[in-house]
Amino acid sequence: MSAKNSLNLLAAFALFVLLGVAGYAALFIAPDEKTMHEIQRIFYFHMPSFITSFVAFFICFLANIAYLARRAAKWDWLGVSAAEVGVAFCTVGLITGPIWAHPVWGVWWTWDARLTSTFVLWLLYVAYLLLRSVTPDAQKRATFSAVFGIFACLDVPFVYLSIRLFRTQHPQPVVFGGQGSGLNPTMKMVLWICWGALLLLMAVLMRQRYRLESLRHEFEELSREVENRAADREAAGARNRGGLAQ
Amino acid sequence: MTTLQAAAVVLGKELRAEWRSRELLNTTFVFALMVLVIFSYTFHFTSVESRRFGPGLLWIAILFGGSLMLHPSFGRELANDTLDALRMSPVEPFAILFGKTLANLVFLFLVEIILLPVFAVLYNVSLVPVLGRLTFVLVCGTLGLVVTGTVFSAVAAQARMRELLLPLLLFPILTPVLIACVECTVGLLGDPPELPRSWAEILIIFDVVFLTASWLLSNQLMEE
Questions:
Q1: Does the beta carbon of B223 lie under 8 angstroms from any beta carbon of chain A?
Q2: How many other CB atoms are found less than 10 A from the CB of residue A206?
Q3: Structure ipTM
């Protein structure tokens, strides 16, 4: 077995264990919340999913800049891997949010600042993936999606600022907030474990997605070469037949 | 030729092409008008409500009309491969992009000038006392729309389903512009009318940031 494969296996095993520990910690170790009780435990996956998706989107932004600066295909592969994984985590956050909100706020969804801006963020990266899926030329796909990715990332501060000025109802940041905020130490520890697990999950998924993209690229190159060689052989065959006829 | 001169040449070419057909302005205006009318009969506004929702509807009409109008900006260069001719000309790539952006700004602003009086009549609002400040909001908002829209028109021109793709790329990016424009317009139509400073600032900063970004990325956008 190659070193690469054993590293993959090790990462997968570590992920398996860490996700199990995180799930157990969130359900059984974290103390009961005073007012929301059991439903609050979804928080240990809700918030880390969002933060993980922000990390992925930021990686996508860096990959976009690196692609435009260096023009190496690997940065394009990293960009699409990060965007896809980011959208997946953001979707998890957007789904766990309403599940939590319904019993607590009494509504599934409200157009509050943080919800709306995160939804817009999700739409931005879905648009990025859509743009990639409808641009047939590989080089143009890489360049234009990188340009769009940079525009999308530049837009994020404006989206957050404008929607925050517009309306807010979401609980103020409890975890990294100012005075009077803060989590119970056990809750905080569980939160860190869950985030660590999701971050590792993100890394493993992104790595596999990156590999898939590089294999696709390799496949395209090979099939092009096969076509070229077939065409060459045909041309040579035609030349030979022409020589024999003479 | 400096970049600005070259951009002026591209602007002249776009204006001439539009002057000959006048397709873009007519269709965009009628489309925006239809959006205003459709909203008015799908929501059953009372006259108080129409004042409240009016600014939002005006900007939705401008956004929808604009997103349709921006597609031909690069789309119509494809028919005769004229984009290659533009690319081969010995000018900065930004000059092409900037000329087209200015042309789109002129087109959309003209549509707005015709749309405003109709909006004022249909939604029963008086715009004359705040016309100066409203023009400022219209110019800043439209600039934000066309700067991002022209870049995405170049991006979408290379894709399949390009007519559908452009609004998909444009709408989420324009969220802050749309909110800021609506808030400014609401402030101007309020009693007493005032222009909310922080929203006007967001609009200006957005325009500056994205104009700079389109300048920095124009080489990559225009390359073969």
A1: yes
A2: 20
A3: 0.90
